[in-house]
Every structure is written in C-alpha cells, then in structure tokens.
Amino acid sequence: MPQRKSPTERQKRLGTELHRMREAAGVTAEAVASAIGVDRGKVSNIEKGVRTISTDRLRSWAALCGCSDETYIGALAEMARPSSRGWWERYRSALPGGFLDISEMEAHAVGLRTAHTVHIPGLLQTVDHARTIFKAAIPPLPQREFELRLVHRLERQQILTRDDGPSLYSVIHEAALRMQFGGRSIARAQLEHLLRMSELSHVTVRVMPVESGIFPGAGQSLVYAEGPVPRLDTVQTDSTHGPEFLHEESQLAKYRAHLEWMERLSLTPEDSRTFIRNLAGQL
C-alpha cells in the first residue's frame, strides 16, 4: 500500500468516495482499519488519496459499509486498479498539475458536456487559435512552457478520434464564436474547423445566440464529465489560478441544471452549423 507525494485528482476522488461511503454508513475509521487489516492512519491516508488501496480491500470496505451497488463498486475498483501511465504523465513537473488532471478526467469520461461563453472549447481549438490564447498569458509564459502547453492541448484533442473515446456535447455562446483571436483569418479557420468537427457522429455543437438573453453562470466555462456511473460524474470549471473539480451531488445537480437551461436556449445542431457557416462567411 504505497504512499503518494502528490495524488492526482482521480486518486483524490477515489479517497473522497470511500470517505463518503464510510460516513454515510456510520462506520468508524477504526472499524474499517480492522476489517481491511491496516492501521487507523492508513485509512485516513486512503481517504485523502495519498495511499493506494487494493481492489480486494476496497470490496471489503464496501461490504463493511453495506454498499451493494455492484456497478458503483466496480467503477471504484477500476479507479483503484494500478494502471499504465497515461500519456499526460510525460508532462508531469513540466506543466501545472491541473492540466494533467483535465487530461486524466477526459480520458476516463464516458461523455463530456461543455458550455463556453468566451472561448472555444479546448478540444475543438485549432493550433493557431490555441497559440493566440497562450501568447496572451500574464506574465508571459517561458518559451518551453508555451510550446509544451500547445503540444499538450493538441494531444488532448486526440481523444475525439479514439475508437473508445467519449462523446462530446458542446454549447458555445455566439460571443465566443465572434471573438477574433489572432485576427480574421485565424478566426475564420477556427469556425471552419468547428464545422468539420460538428459533423462527427459523436460530436454535437450547439450555438446559443445572443438573443437568448440571460442564463445561469453567464461568463463561466464548464465541463461536465460523465463517469461510468452518475455518482462518479465530475464538473470542471476554469479560474485564473487553474481548473477546479467539483463532485458534491448538490454541485452536480446545479451544473446539470445550468447545462439544460443553456441547451434549451440554443439552436439545433443543424441550425448551429448554418449559423457558424454564415459567420465564417462574413470574415
């Protein structure tokens, strides 16, 4: 049961789920420690994500807590199972940890639902569009980090061409489509790329026109990552200091409601393609 120095967001999430399970069942940490054959301190570290747990011990933990949802337990066991290093690990120590956590979240998601009001979603950006965004960082990024962020973003996008990749359902506000990041030619190329991506069977793009008016969370970008079971869904929001990951049920319900509100106000996928096509023609 090795200890980690810096657990990933996924590893911390596993610990959080086990803590919630124990608390909901009214089981003490001492009782869990006795049941799985470890000391009390290791239970605390498992719940913090800094210690691993075997799948056998995880199932013993669940049985003690009276959890009988086999689909949920199986999903947790998959999170606990040692896995090969993901491609994003090549960037560890070279990029902020939040970038890697986003990549890991996307890699394990069943589906992704996004809402953006100012930016085009990272998974749908052209290299020139992304380059323009990274050049606007304050303070300016060192050249090596600038290049690594760009390559990392492009590598993230390969998830959309993977046979077992997640579906993507993206609502983009008209304001984001009209942003001429990098000038007219780059903006036009970005819109044309968005059109091509929207034709993929597992990618849905819907435009929210300015006439739609107010909506909850205006100005906020969010990604709702659907887990193998709904209890393992995650919301990722952006902030100036990096990504934030939310998974309390009340938070998930709130952001599901945000997305549903925006989707109701958005154009159909076909009307959205027509809108984007006409906008690109104006550039």
UniProtKB/TrEMBL annotation:
Kindly provide the name given to this protein in its UniProt entry: Helix-turn-helix domain-containing protein
HTH cro/C1-type domain boundaries: 18-73
Q: Which CDD domains match?
A: HTH_XRE (cd00093)
Q: Which SMART domains match?
A: HTH_XRE
Cross-referenced Gene3D superfamilies, in alphabetical order? lambda repressor-like DNA-binding domains
* PROSITE patterns (UniProt xref): HTH_CROC1
